[in-house]
């Protein structure tokens, strides 16, 4: 197969791409990945984030006595702005994905291999959408609880309540203690 074939990231023939040992790389605006953009901090729209950089490399690994294995290696770098769970301000989080995926012919084979190996397994397609795949992998790589390494502003501290001029409310347990004390003294008389 010729290596000069043009491959489309939005409709990739995985088998042909891997057989050619081809490579694709590029950038997409973060706002074009709508699910990723929706996960961001409302104060920091995805249109202002740096572009998502990605690279994918196809390969075929021969297997003695079996069908050759089809692999895609994925590399993605992005910066996602999410709400810090400590200070509630936007936090710019660098997200990096470096993974290889084995592609198989059908769901049954994928389920079988997924149970028996540590490889990441996906089903092969003649119209595989790299942009959706990149977005899926970025969403999976996001932290469950986003936060700054060091928050930009001091965190609010919980302070002791200020003393007021109002009279102190009686402790309800003190009243119970007094009642208990009265019963104890009347029983001994």
Automatic annotation (TrEMBL):
GO terms for cellular component: cytosol. Pfam families: YceD (PF02620). Keywords: Ribosome biogenesis. InterPro entries: YceD, YceD_bac. The keyword Lipoprotein does not apply. Coiled coil: none annotated. GO terms for biological process: ribosome biogenesis. Plays a role in synthesis, processing and/or stability of 23S rRNA. Belongs to the DUF177 domain family. This is Large ribosomal RNA subunit accumulation protein YceD. It comes from Inhella crocodyli.
């Amino acid at each position: 197969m010729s290596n000069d074939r043009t491959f489309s990231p939005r409709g990739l023939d995985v088998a042909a791409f891997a057989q050619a040992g081809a490579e694709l790389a590029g950038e997409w605006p973060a706002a074009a990945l709508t699910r990723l953009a929706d996960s961001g901090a409302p104060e920091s729209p995805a249109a202002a984030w740096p572009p998502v950089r990605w690279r994918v490399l196809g390969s075929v690994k021969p297997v003695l006595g079996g069908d050759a294995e089809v692999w895609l290696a994925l590399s993605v770098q992005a910066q996602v702005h999410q709400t810090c769970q400590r200070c509630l301000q936007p936090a710019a989080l660098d997200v990096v994905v470096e993974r290889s995926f084995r592609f198989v012919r059908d769901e049954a084979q994928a389920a079988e291999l997924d149970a028996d190996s540590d490889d990441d397994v996906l089903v092969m397609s003649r119209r595989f959408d790299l942009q959706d795949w990149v977005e899926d992998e970025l969403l999976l790589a996001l932290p469950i609880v986003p936060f700054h390494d060091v928050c930009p502003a001091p965190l609010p501290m919980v302070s002791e309540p200020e003393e007021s001029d109002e009279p102190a409310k009686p402790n309800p347990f003190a009243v119970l203690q007094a009642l208990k004390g009265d019963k104890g003294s009347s029983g001994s008389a």
